[in-house]
Design a protein that fits this description.
- The protein is about 45% helix and about 20% strand.
- The protein has a single domain, classed as Rossmann fold, CATH 3.40.50.
- The chain is an alpha/beta fold and about 160 residues long.
């Protein structure tokens, strides 16, 4: 039976890094970052682009789930609303899968420290601080396993997910 890992969390919490670590821990793994399905400049958010990114994500995940080379399919994206997770799952054939829905959470202080490092490196702009912090409380409402990454390494977080 395959495993599908849906890993959500606000911007800067460490989803990509944890997912890359998880990919190395689990056998026959493949990883998709939702951001790769919507990497545009300028970044436009409207009904058309939202539908496009969901189609891109679901098409790619469906291909991964249907491919015999992979046993573990890992997907990460912001996924700050339960409906996003439900929409993705409803588009996939998960009958032969164990689905693991995880939210990475952390303290606002830890999030700000991580984001400030990215801002200093020129990887993010200053406006990310408030936008990302505003989404933190939304994850508590989600029907997911919560992993607090405030004080643990990405490797430790990946190990916790692998143990699920």
């Amino acid at each position: 039976m395959k495993n599908l890992y849906l890993i959500g969390g606000t911007m800067g919490v460490g989803k990509t890094t944890v997912s890359q670590q998880l990919k190395r821990l689990l056998p026959r793994s493949v990883f998709l970052d939702g951001d790769w399905c919507w990497d545009a400049h300028p970044f436009v958010v409207n009904d058309e682009t939202k539908a496009m990114v969901m189609d891109n994500i679901c098409h790619t995940l469906g291909n991964f789930l249907g491919c015999s080379a992979y046993e573990n399919v890992i997907f990460c994206w912001v996924m700050h609303e339960q409906k996003i997770v439900e929409d993705i799952l409803s588009a996939l054939d998960t009958r032969a899968c164990r689905v693991h829905c995880i939210s990475l959470v952390c303290s606002e202080e830890a999030l700000r420290q991580r984001l400030e490092k990215d801002i200093e490196k020129g990887l993010r702009t200053q406006d990310i601080l408030e936008r990302s912090a505003a989404r933190l409380p939304l994850y508590e409402k989600m029907d997911t396993v919560k992993i607090d990454v405030s004080d643990i390494s990405p490797s430790a977080a990946a190990q916790r997910i692998a143990a699920l």
